[in-house]
Design brief:
This protein is α+β, with helices and mostly antiparallel strands. The protein has 2 helices and 4 strands; from the N terminus they run αββββα. The chain has a 4-stranded antiparallel β-sheet with strand order 1-2-3-4, with helices on one face. The two termini are 13 Å apart.
Length: 69
């Protein structure tokens, strides 16, 4: 996943997040307490509060990696 792909996903779900450049990637801190970090390698790290949004993103990313979406 890229930072642009995550940004698009969050826009589609009407979620506002604060973005911050971190070592080797971009960190997204969302108002609901979710924290998502996308690394330049394409790796996605989901942290913070476990919410419906983080579950949707996890499912979306798993489907995308398996070629279903």
């Amino acid at each position: 996943m890229t930072a642009d792909e995550l940004r698009d996903f969050l826009r589609q779900h009407q979620v506002s997040c604060k973005e911050e450049e971190v070592q080797h990637g971009t960190k997204f801190e969302c108002r609901g307490g979710e924290i998502f970090i996308v690394y330049h390698t394409g790796r996605l790290n989901i942290q913070g509060k476990k919410t419906q949004l983080s579950a949707k993103l996890k499912a979306y990313w798993a489907a995308k990696k398996s070629g279903k979406k």
